[in-house]
């Protein structure tokens, strides 16, 4: 998901497809750690910017997916029916021990 965005951004900036794929591969395989190395050199700053933008989009998407799964879990929890055992527990008199 991130690699195509980096490559697309770099090719839109005029870089060849092969070079863009190589830089995108380096960024994604390092989990974004290569971005700082690219940012440290003036000639590779656009690569760092493309990497940061793609990583930010990926993290944002991951956050929305996580929130969706949490919401789905909350809804599923609310829809769990009461069990027969729980209804039997309420029919006993308070203070009665089994």
UniProtKB/TrEMBL annotation:
Q: Under which name does UniProt file this protein?
A: MFS transporter, DHA2 family, multidrug resistance protein
Any idea which UniProt keywords this protein has? Membrane, Transmembrane, Transmembrane helix
Locate the transmembrane regions by residue number: 61-80
Domain of life from the UniProt record = Bacteria
């Amino acid at each position: 998901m991130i690699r195509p965005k980096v490559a697309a951004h770099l090719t839109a900036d005029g870089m060849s497809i092969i070079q863009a794929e190589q830089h995108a591969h380096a960024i994604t395989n390092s989990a974004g750690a290569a971005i700082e190395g690219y940012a440290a050199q003036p000639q590779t700053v656009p690569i760092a910017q493309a990497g940061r933008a793609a990583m930010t989009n990926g993290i944002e998407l991951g956050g929305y997916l996580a929130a969706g799964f949490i919401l789905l879990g909350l809804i599923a929890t609310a829809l769990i029916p009461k069990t027969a055992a729980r209804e039997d527990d309420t029919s006993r008199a308070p203070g009665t021990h089994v």
